[in-house]
Amino acid sequence: MSVTFFSILFVNVLATQALWCYQCNSSHHENCLESLTGDASLAPEPCDTYAARYCVKTTGIYGGRSSPSIRLTCILFSAVMGITRFCSSYHLGNECQYLSFPDHDRMYRACVFTCKTEACNSANQFQSHQIFFLITSLSMSLPTIGAFIT
Questions:
Q1: Which of 96, 98, 121, 150 is the most buried (most CB within 10 A)?
Q2: CB–CB of 4/144 below 8 Å?
C-alpha cells in the first residue's frame, strides 16, 4: 500500500511543481485560435508565473447586426475579438458574461475558463496524458482499496 500511495503522491507533486500551459495572445500569434489545431508552433510552455497552479483561456466575441460584409448565405456569424491563454496563481473562474457599450449596438461575450492540469487550456477537455494518468492511478489503487474492503 505505501509504495502505491507514495508513487501517486510523488507524481502529483511533480505535476504541481512543473505546470505547463498554452501561452499565447491572438493579437501577437496568428495560431492562437478559439480551438487549437495541433499547430507545432503553439505548444505548452513551462509556467514562469509565481506559484502558478492554473491554466487560463479567455475569449472575447461579438455578434454584430447583419451587414453585407459579415453575412454569408443569410446567416450571421459572430466574430472572435481575441483569445489569450496564460498561467495564473489564482482560479479566475469559469463563466461567460454579455457586455454592451453605450457607443455602439454590438453585444460582446467575454469568457474565462480556468483549469488545473497540464496543458488543459486548449480547446480539448481531456487530453490523452490526463486519461492515461487517471487510468494508471486507479489501476494502482484498486488492490489497495480491495484490501480495505475485505
A1: 121
A2: yes
